[in-house]
Amino acid sequence: MVFEDCVCFRLGKTVRRVTRAYRQEISKYKLTHGQFFMMVAIYEEEGLLPSELAEKTSQDRATTTGLLDRLEKDGWVIRKADRDDRRSLRIFHTRKASEHKKNIITLFEKTNQKFLNCFTQSEWSQMQDFLSRLDQFNDSNQSF
User: Containing H/E element for 15?
Assistant: First the structure.
């Protein structure tokens, strides 16, 4: 087997390239890659619990909490007590985040579309199937 044929190597290399495509643009907002995608998730569905955001973004809860702590400190999000269960905190974007929402969503959509343009509709469907298979393999706790 050749090193370049390693699935982990190829996926990691691709992820780094995709990340670089966003990095320069999101730096204007002083957001990290993780914070940027967390904000996109919050814009898409506001008022989620941190555990729900962790699930939505495929992050562990500790990572999600760290991202939310930093976003709150920097004025992007606010935690509000749940109306039905005051022990639970729901996540909402702030006025600052509202001011940048259109630009951030546009950046997300345009950059994503650049990568989607590498595929035909059929190829993208196949790619999604391939990635889902890899996710299922990992979730099935198959040993090596």
Answer: helix 7-26
